[in-house]
């Protein structure tokens, strides 16, 4: 009986030692719940981008320059006091002896802005450019029972067309860019707070480039205080375009050629500009 009890106690002691050992192991070596390390997912291998080539850097810089809008400079003077500045900036734009006399008018920027706006809308700019009106009156000639626009009337505009043709297109556009804030201010005065005057200027140029150079006599119909063109293809042109064709094919060509040069100097692609076209009158 004694040996049996002794064997039991030895078993209990051995079990206790095993339990203590396991407890110490778990206490010192097995991590507690708060200390269980979270497995870190292995990051996928990402190849570092190679440095851009010089060509790509140049292309990116050019693209950034094109997309970046330049902030227009502040006006150099007040709009109402800008005439002297315009006259000073206009020196050297044309070698024509009569050119500078045109700039003796007042409110130059406002007049030009209003005229450009009218042309862009297809309207006659005459109310704002009365200082350009020819001294000689318009004349018509009669052949039998028919009435035609007298080609002699075209010569009234020769001086104006010659002066316009004499302008240095690139220098004129450079001067315009300097004066642009004043044009934009004058354009806002007309009631366009959110429009860009240059967009309107380009529309006006395109409007006049769409006018045909008319070959042949233009048949007229007398009205109470004016004349109407009988040829519907010409009569249905905008008033701005009819003003141009009444200057005659010689002068129309000169003005359109210079307008095209100016549009290109403004950065308008050639393919976006209306092509020059001739129109032969129908009736005789």
Question: How would you portray this structure in words?
Answer:
By secondary structure, the protein is an alpha+beta fold. The chain has one domain. 46% of the residues lie in helices and 7% in strands. The chain has 10 helices and 6 strands, in the order ααααββαααβββαααβ. The strands form 2 sheets. The protein has a 4-stranded antiparallel sheet. A hairpin with a 2-residue loop joins strand 1 and strand 2. It starts with a helix and ends with a strand.
**Rg calculated over all Cα atoms:** 42 Å
Largest sheet: 4 strands, antiparallel
Task: Work out the count of structural domains.
Answer: 1
Query: What order do the SSEs take from the amino end to the carboxyl end, as H and E?
Result: HHHHEEHHHEEEHHHE
According to DSSP, the number of beta strands is 6
The proportion of residues in beta strands is: 5-15%
Strand order of the largest sheet: 1-2-4-5
Shape: globular
Structural class: alpha+beta
Query: Mean pLDDT, nearest integer?
Result: 80
Task: Describe this structure in a few short sentences.
By secondary structure, the chain is α+β, with helices and mostly antiparallel strands. The chain is built from ten helices and six strands, in the order ααααββαααβββαααβ. The protein has one domain (69-280).
